[in-house]
Amino acid sequence: MQYYDQHLHTFLSFDSEETFEAYLDKDLPIFVATDHFDLQNPCSQFKDDIPNYDRLCQIHQDLTNKYPTKLLKGIELGVVPGQQAQIEAYLQTHPYDLHLLSIHQNGRFDYMDDIVLTMDKLKIAQMYFDQMELVLQTFKYGHILTHFEYGLRRLSFSAEELANHFETQLTRILKLVIQRQMGLELNAKSFGKYQNAPLYDYIIPLYQSLGGKLFTLGSDAHVADDYQLLFPEMAQLLAKHQVKQLALFENTEIQLVSLI
Ligand SMILES: [Zn+2]
Ligand SMILES: [Zn+2]
């Protein structure tokens, strides 16, 4: 089994126009769209962004006859404390094969909004990691913790600053990730657009030192041309840390495949 991209967006996300066909035309053995679910999303004037589940099922039904690709259902869950019960109830009646767990916003602003530039960067980072820790403690879904540095992207943190201020808390967070048998994602937007590869170079050995072994790569593509974006570069960083396998998640199954 070959590794496949486990972080992809289509027009079922509020911030993508991409079609399923554009991805499937790439002759993929397996395809999983992980569209955005964010309740009261500051990026959408506090509307609930929920990918249309009936539409997803219909699309899968239509495409099954046209492509040999195996289709899985995925979702990227942005979680704000206070929303856990509502999201869990939704997921009980809307089953998915793959749940990405993300922290994007705090009910007032998205951590990538300009407003964070006007605030104290340590306070913002603290707020962001507190939220991540609480969500990992209290929200039961999630196969993969995505882009762990999302909340730092506008704040230009060095690996050294991150270690100095947040290593104790990151250790607790990574222990929860390990306890829950979740994967730790290397995200292509973090590597390319936001130039945060040094933060991954720091967190990979920290996670390993605690026993963490489940790594995933995600392009976070919003257009099909970005499928597996920067995978060679991200795989190279993992190889530098002696990682030899990647993890694929499907329902209760975890499959380890060789590093691409
Ligand atoms: Zn995200
Ligand atoms: Zn995403």
Number of domains: 1
Instruction: State which percent range the strand residues make up.
Output: 15-25%
- Which structural class should the secondary elements be placed in? alpha/beta
What would you call the shape?
globular
Give the integer mean of the pLDDT values. 98
Helix content: 25-40%
EC number: 3.1.3.15
GO molecular function, one term: histidinol-phosphatase activity
Protein name: Histidinol-phosphatase
Keywords: Amino-acid biosynthesis, Histidine biosynthesis, Hydrolase
Structure description:
By secondary structure, the protein is an alpha/beta fold. The chain has one domain (20-258): Metal-dependent hydrolases (TIM Barrel, Alpha-Beta Barrel). The chain is 36% helix and 20% strand. α3 links the parallel β3 and β4. α4 (121-138) runs parallel beside α5 and α5 (159-179) crosses α7. It is globular, with a radius of gyration of 17 Å. The mean pLDDT is 98. It binds zinc ion (2 copies). The site of one zinc ion (ZN) has 4 residues, from loops.
